[in-house]
Amino acid sequence: MRGTLRALFLTASATRAFASCAHGTFLHPREEGGAVEVGKFGYIGSIGPLHWAALDSPANNLCATGTRQSPINMVDGVFTVLQGSDVQLTVNDMPNGADFENLGTTVEVVAQGGTLKVADKQFELQQFHFHLPSEHLDNGTSQAMEMHMVFQSAQKEIAVIGVYINIADQPSSNTTTTTSLSKAAPKRSLPGLTRRESPLAATPLLETLFTSLPAITNPGTRTKTAPLAMGPLVDLLLKGNTFQTYSGSLTTPPCSEGVRWLVSGARLAVTPATFARARDVLGFNARFVQNAPGEPNALMQAAVGTAVAAVEAGAGLAGGRV
Ligand SMILES: *[C@@H]1O[C@H](CO)[C@@H](O)[C@H](O)[C@H]1NC(C)=O
Ligand SMILES: *[C@@H]1O[C@H](CO)[C@@H](O)[C@H](O)[C@H]1NC(C)=O
Q1: Are 299 and 48 in contact (CB under 8 A)?
Q2: What is the full DSSP assignment across 139-207?
Q3: pTM, entire model
Q4: Residue 284 CB neighbour total at 10 angstroms
Q5: Domain count for the chain
Q6: What radius of gyration, in Å, describes the C-alpha atoms of the chain?
Q7: CB 296: neighbour CB atoms within 10 A?
Q8: CA of 76 to the centre of ligand 1 (A)
Q9: Cβ distance 267 to 163 under 8 Å?
Q10: Residue 243 φ/ψ, nearest 5 degrees
């Protein structure tokens, strides 16, 4: 069986897995001014998450063998909680708009500066991109979408802020958005009540950004967004917010580990129409939920189970049983 497993995990392939979650970091530098690179991996079938390791072995081996893989179920009360005040975050406004790219595997905004300081480590914002539905589960529950803000340190470490995106109950409004979103943030302060407090207003940043989605419906395309004000997002993430933090991985090939995750309690929201627009472009781009940090990789467990089933099926056939 050892040989079988090795063959399973060491299957080499010439295919490179471009356009990963680490796009724009040292793991996958962005080509300045170049064409938009389209991902060679996917979420369904033979290029889906069950096959990421085989798509480019050994580069992607951790996807099938790593024991600290992401995303995971963010079970209440299990993870270290950081207060917004434990984190320093800046994100530069983009008054002339931002480059917004369709990588095939996600849509991504190229950042124009931003910093994250957490536990005395400083990271620089590279990009933010979107998953549909959410990749992390909020105490067992998937959310409509999830935004990943990807940061890199000078020592080439990666940190990602994950923010759930819910469906809004009302359109965005400049005067009420920030307060209603902040109120929705500390969801654990009201045990027994629904997680989403009403009314949840749509986030102006996302409504503005996703207005540009029709311009990048095809993989490999890029557009310029309207001006993006990032201050309200920073306020939402810092003021009265908490983060569950853990050490995990990229949720795309090469599934590199040692990624510091900060999963935000405060959420963003989009109107139903905007969600539909995002779904039309993203389709489905969430990796399946991985085992808790430190547990065996789910694919290793599955391979053992498959081998056992095969042996039993073989024995059954040999014994003439049906
Ligand atoms: C988290 O999930 C568990 C198991 O389903 C449940 O018992 C618990 O009440 C949930 N916690 C919150 C805050 O919803
Ligand atoms: C809300 O924002 C829009 C677009 O940014 C602006 O045109 C409008 O004047 C703002 N309304 C208020 C009440 O500030």
Answers
A1: no
A2: TTB--SEEEEEEEEETTS-EEEEEEEEEE-SB---TTTHHHHHHHHS-GGGSTTS-SSPSPPBPPHHHH
A3: 0.84
A4: 12
A5: 1
A6: 21
A7: 12
A8: 7
A9: yes
A10: -125, 140
Backbone angles phi, psi at 2, to 5 degrees: -60, -45
277-288 pLDDT per residue, tens: 999 999 999 999
Look at residue 27 in the predicted model and tell me its pLDDT. Answer: 79
Amino acid at site 117: K
Q: Each residue of 37-51: b (16+ CB within 10 Å) or e?
A: bbbbbbbeeebebeb
Supply 88's token pair: 């320093």
Q: Which domain does 240 fall in, by range? A: 2-316
Residue with tokens 């369904």: 44
Q: Does residue 321 sit within a domain?
A: no
Q: Is residue 322 part of a domain?
A: no
Which ligand has the minimum distance to the alpha carbon of residue 174?
2
Q: What is the pLDDT of residue 39?
A: 83
Residue with tokens 């085992």: 291
The per-residue pLDDT for range 172-209, each reduced to its tens digit, is: 765 444 443 444 444 443 333 344 455 789 999 999 99
Q: Is 174 in the pocket of ligand 2 (CB under 6 A)?
A: yes
Q: Domain containing 95 — which CATH number?
A: 3.10.200.10
Give CA–CA dist 187/267, Å, rounded: 10
SS3 per residue for 57-119: CCCCCHHHHCCCCCCCEECCCCCEEEEHHHEEEEECCECCCCEEEECCCCEEEECCCEEEEEC
For a ligand 2 pocket test, name from 172, 174, 206 the mutation site with the most ligand atoms within 8 angstroms of its C-beta: 174
- Reference 298, options 290, 288, 306; nearest CA is 290
Expressed in angstroms and rounded, the spacing between residue 77 Cα and the centre of ligand 1 is 9
Q: What is the pLDDT of residue 25?
A: 84
Overall size of the chain counted in residues: 322
